[in-house]
Specification:
Blueprint lengths: L11 H10 L13 H16 L8 H14 L8
Helix pairs in contact: 1-3, 2-3
Length: 80
Amino acid sequence: MQPFEVPDAETADGKIYVRRCSLCHALPDPARMTYTQWVGVVGRMAQNIRSQNVPQVSDEEFQQILLYLKRHAKPAEIAH
């Protein structure tokens, strides 16, 4: 993964993104995927956490992470 500056890392949802999404792996650049792609990835990560020895993601944290990713995701391609 390429190094990047985490956008809005000091916002409430940015802090949750940094704290929770770096527990098990390198922090991914939010602009790497579209929001729709992130929804699937975050859902899988929430399931993976259940089998790990890390604190579970609360529903509120899950929503905050998705909100953060929605603001910073790669724009969706527009079909022509």
